[in-house]
């Protein structure tokens, strides 16, 4: 059974930092790319950052470049999102995603999603 469990969200003041973690289980984590998405109230879910299976290829949304850092530890089956210089517009539920692909020989067109963790940036 695949599980993605996010943690690390919370309330932080503008300019502050948070580190999100996503612990994965139930699939061969080290061979799959991983994503972080977010969804703010009344807005569509947006891709924040992606990391390849080895960690050698990384992408960021323009809105978070220079402030957020994605990383992974394949030995711990965990992907991280370090968020610095947070702004009120970063307020959203952040989701960990294992993207569409083959998992244990079965194609999963939606991939897998965590339950989300709330990040609120407010003074």
Structure description:
This protein is mainly beta and 123 residues long. The chain contains no helices and 13 strands. The strands form three sheets. Strands 2, 4, 5, 6, 9, 12 and 13 form a seven-stranded mixed β-sheet that branches. A four-stranded antiparallel β-sheet has the order 1-3-8-7, with no helix packed on it. Strand 4 and strand 5 form a beta hairpin. It starts with a strand and ends with a strand.
Short summary:
It is built from no helices and 13 strands. It is mainly β.
Overall shape: globular
**Segments where pLDDT lies below 50 for 5+ residues?**
none
What would the average pLDDT be, to the nearest integer?
Answer: 97
**How many helical elements?**
0
> What is the oligomeric state here?
single chain
Rg (CA only):
14 Å
Task: Please count the beta strands (DSSP E, at least 2 residues each).
Answer: 13
Structural category is: mainly beta
Q: What brief labels describe this structure?
A:
single chain, 7-stranded mixed beta sheet, globular, mainly beta, 123 residues, 4-stranded antiparallel beta sheet
